[in-house]
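Exercise (ungraded).
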Amino acid sequence: MIRVGIVGATGYTAVELLKILLRHPEVTVTAITSRDPESPHLSEVHPILRDQLNLNFSLLDIPKFCQQVDVAFCCLPHAASAAIVGQLVDAGVKVIDFSADYRLNDVETFQQWYGVEHPDSQRVGNVAYGIPELFRSAIRSSDVVANPGCFPSSALIPLAPLLKADLIQTAPIIVDSKTGISGAGRKTNLKFHYPECNESISAYGIGTHRHMPEIDQIIKRFCNVDIQTVFTPHLTPMDRGILSTIYVQSKGKASASDIMDCWADFYEDEKFIRVSPDLVATKNVSGTNFCDITARHCRGTIVIVSALDNLIKGASGAAVQNFNVMHGLDDTVGML
Amino acid sequence: MIRVGIVGATGYTAVELLKILLRHPEVTVTAITSRDPESPHLSEVHPILRDQLNLNFSLLDIPKFCQQVDVAFCCLPHAASAAIVGQLVDAGVKVIDFSADYRLNDVETFQQWYGVEHPDSQRVGNVAYGIPELFRSAIRSSDVVANPGCFPSSALIPLAPLLKADLIQTAPIIVDSKTGISGAGRKTNLKFHYPECNESISAYGIGTHRHMPEIDQIIKRFCNVDIQTVFTPHLTPMDRGILSTIYVQSKGKASASDIMDCWADFYEDEKFIRVSPDLVATKNVSGTNFCDITARHCRGTIVIVSALDNLIKGASGAAVQNFNVMHGLDDTVGML
Amino acid sequence: MIRVGIVGATGYTAVELLKILLRHPEVTVTAITSRDPESPHLSEVHPILRDQLNLNFSLLDIPKFCQQVDVAFCCLPHAASAAIVGQLVDAGVKVIDFSADYRLNDVETFQQWYGVEHPDSQRVGNVAYGIPELFRSAIRSSDVVANPGCFPSSALIPLAPLLKADLIQTAPIIVDSKTGISGAGRKTNLKFHYPECNESISAYGIGTHRHMPEIDQIIKRFCNVDIQTVFTPHLTPMDRGILSTIYVQSKGKASASDIMDCWADFYEDEKFIRVSPDLVATKNVSGTNFCDITARHCRGTIVIVSALDNLIKGASGAAVQNFNVMHGLDDTVGML
Amino acid sequence: MIRVGIVGATGYTAVELLKILLRHPEVTVTAITSRDPESPHLSEVHPILRDQLNLNFSLLDIPKFCQQVDVAFCCLPHAASAAIVGQLVDAGVKVIDFSADYRLNDVETFQQWYGVEHPDSQRVGNVAYGIPELFRSAIRSSDVVANPGCFPSSALIPLAPLLKADLIQTAPIIVDSKTGISGAGRKTNLKFHYPECNESISAYGIGTHRHMPEIDQIIKRFCNVDIQTVFTPHLTPMDRGILSTIYVQSKGKASASDIMDCWADFYEDEKFIRVSPDLVATKNVSGTNFCDITARHCRGTIVIVSALDNLIKGASGAAVQNFNVMHGLDDTVGML
């Protein structure tokens, strides 16, 4: 059994991660940490897990933690994560990092968009980006994997094969994304107070969302062109799910069905990417690690729609999938 | 025109109050206060009112405020309200108070349930309770009215006529209430964070909710017996609305239709109480000042169901109705 | 008092229309029709209106109806509406038609997109399109007004002034719209069964939605160029509201604030169009006749966001506004 | 591997059942039937299962079906189910029946409440009632199990041990239940059209719901007294979950903590019943086979709150648990 610990295990991604890990046949969860010095009981923080795991929260004590675990899932905020990842790796612990700290190619872009000094800058640019369907071999040989952002996953999965196959133009690429409110995390904020966001849809962070440069940088690896995605996230009154509607121009008259054929080939062996002839919906992937994708043609524009569960394929499911790849297991262990 | 001010105008009851007052033909809103020293623009706090009222928030300056207004709606928390109501009244301003400060009969009960010293204890017990359908004449001649709690309104409106007519027994009275999340107010709290309460229903405050003694004390006026209501509120995943399912035992074989007849008589001239042969639903009163009530018989028990909008008939609509009664206007002015 | 009838008054637009008309000081509602031969009571069909209107449904008897009313709001499906509008007009009744029958410029486009013969083809192309902010003078002198589609309203209000002022390019224009489920009407369909669409967002009708040619044709009047909008509607888990996120390219380096200035000028005297510096949300217009609009710049693309209530500004509020304009009343009568 | 078939596999319980069975290590799903002669693809009916099961719907052909399966889960409506269960059993197929056909003790009560002739009356009264925590030994030796109703499960699990231990009085027992909309099944009906039931809570079927006699009859087995439960179900705007708030009178001064101790003893070895010191919520059991229960004391009344997922512990999870018990497997196989 592989001993697993979760650093910063009080949020929504952590509870989904625990649900998956508790079913995973190769894993035993041996430590969960929180920055709350009161060490609350697991069932107070995550009542859905009552009686499922005989473990309470403790403060992170790095040397002790490194003795307890073989692999760490880090669910800390950006910068807080990079401040400890190095120490874990040096102690021989493999890390799957949920923060944005190792997703970008370079420290400058990180510091520009996140507005803080990077605490572990020499590692930036050398960490595998955790979409196994796109970067499996790099992930397989890694000690640290940067778990991808939820919005980038929903954009990169459909776009990467098309740019690689030169089926679409590199500009303009418009990504209009709609997310459930759990995407905002578990910290209270008036914006996410139930009566503020229920029965309402709104755009936010137009041109300023940090997932925009992440999409740009990762996508460039498939076309070798600087990409300037136009990315608009929207807050949708539902718990979970991301639907991204992506507008691109085809190259050389590629039709919607050429697009779908390209995906069918590229993702032929992938269990978690489903190319759907029907229009996709977040409900059809809710609670699963699937990403459903489809395409339509409208007056010269290719309209791509992708759907995933922001907490699973957009976070904890992807993390376990990365864990599986890092350990030579089938991607689907613990999830199908 | 009657000049009206709102003290503590940043919450959900205040925005509903403003929406009604802006349509009220006899009212001009002349002041709105907030305890935020930044004096935010109205449209930042209540974007639905953008461009509708040329007024921004100011800190409460009692002498100045009393020169600006004839009537004050106080939307402050308990104790904070009673600390200023006296001063407003002494300056000749009429007050409709949304807090619990003047609802109970005696200071002891207030202090026991609210856990604070009452700042204006001599007035307690002498203030009209603001359900016009039950206490119109007292309200008409009052300078201060205690606007009722949302749950008590949903229980008292159906129960009072039945107890007065001696149609039901005084024990047990079980009030099982379901409220939308706006009932919790506009302060952030993890419990009301969207992903915590969406797609979930739960009971809270069983045996400890402060609206329980309020129901007991007001209802006693109709039967002269000490009542011990068993009251269970539930948090329901919707913005607004209260549905109360009330279980009582009939006296002298009163049937469900006797109950409905009693209401039809008692509320014959009331525009806002609708006795419904059909089962009621919160949606059918949403955004209105109606309270819909119905009754059924089940195996010897009378099951009463009442529905109202917690922000309107349960708060701001009732307040304007009280305002109308205090000024000799028809109850419905500004609302129908 | 102007006598008003509603033809096909059982749906969601009709109940919102009735709510507004019951508050309208110049209107008395004298007839409501339904195609249900059982003539149900109003309170069975629209329980929120219980006791508010002493009128029940009847089958449409055109001669009788024309004696009862001065103005008809027709809420029938397409083609069914045009089959009777002519008769009403010939009898001297003014008509505000909610269907799509008179919105398009020509019969061919109608028949191509709606797949039926037009029952009143000679009138097509000669009917005022009912956005008063864009076509006030035509509406003022009309006997029949085509009430606009909800999605087109959300696109045309922001786009028309910009095209007229030559601030944006005529292609590409991408309209990514999100609507609440009431937009689908009140007929049952598995797609709109609560557990199917709750907690889910999905795109539908990509490239095939009938509001697309409507946007194209109306918008052309402001730029004299054939427009080919790329329009993607989405079903959002909420009752009401439309948010349209619109992607256009500026011309001559117009910035987001140039866009906002253009709107501020164009809509200076309009009470129902609010140009907002803040990002807009459907909740902030819910239950109102407002359309809130804003713009942002993102990497060369202008991102416009508009919000309206599909049942009010997108249907019944617009209809009453048209009614007001047709009768020389201020636009806002009955609504502010 | 045990070969399993699902009869009537197009609804919400069937899709949840399939999700569990696909993870179940001892099961292979070999047939799914539908009464739709078009034999739709699984992914059209249940898009969340796209690519997960290489099987399409067929019409039920009993002899063929009995060769394909060892065990049948019958998800047909009442009466339709009993019309075929006998044939399946006679052919050696074990049956877990989701309908109400075999839940009641006698044919008279069935016919009175369901209003139809029972098609397999001689079996009524001889079928194990499928709550393993209460009737494990009967289930273990059965060929047919009557899967319990969702509301009865939420009432019987907390009540049975208390009646057996003589801790509470047998009257009055008031069960105030709140259910998500999936409880209404997947057939369209205006009542469950999204805009009708969203943002609304309402009571229905007071005194007439068919789960009321089911509670009465099953509960009698624990106290040998005729019970007349007062049962009020409510429709709650959420997909799934049942919360039952149950009001009983204690006997011999049993306190809330005596109640909780009784449960803790009775359910000591049960993995799916969680006695919670905290107040329970449907969200904390959503997607799981848990039933969470708690109790509070309020003015002489014991207030019990139970929470379960109506589609899992209230239907398909219970069914798989019954399946496990019938086959000598641990209750939790496939579910934890």
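Further reading is listed at the end of the chapter. For now, observe: Chain A has two domains: 2-126, 150-309. The two ends of chain A are 19 Å apart (CA to CA).
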